[in-house]
Specification:
4 helices; mainly alpha
């Protein structure tokens, strides 16, 4: 017969643990239940249930660039185009809508 529960030991930064447990408490969820939900989502998604990526960089403020900096950015864009590193406008706008929940 399978065990009804198993122990999990993890090291977590004290401040992160406290902040997360305060939020979970406000939601009426124990840390154990939250971890169990997280593991179940890993199983369902066959991976982490969220994207693991670096934060999106803020777009360049073109007006604040010098002429030389602007030329460099234009050259980068041109090189990307020549190398085929482009996306359709439809995909770009779909990604923006997805990222901002629109």
């Amino acid at each position: 017969m399978a065990a009804k529960s198993a122990n999990l030991y993890a090291r977590i930064e004290p401040d992160v643990k406290e902040q997360a447990e305060n939020i979970l408490s406000a939601l009426g969820i124990t840390a154990s239940n939250a971890i169990n939900m997280f593991y179940k989502q890993i199983i369902l998604q066959k991976g982490l249930p969220f994207a693991v990526k670096l934060p999106v960089e803020k777009p360049l403020a073109m007006a604040s660039l010098s002429k030389e900096e602007l030329d460099v950015e234009i050259e980068k864009g041109y090189a990307d185009m020549l190398e085929g590193r482009t996306e359709s406008a439809e995909k770009v706008f779909a990604d923006i809508r997805k990222d901002y929940g629109l």
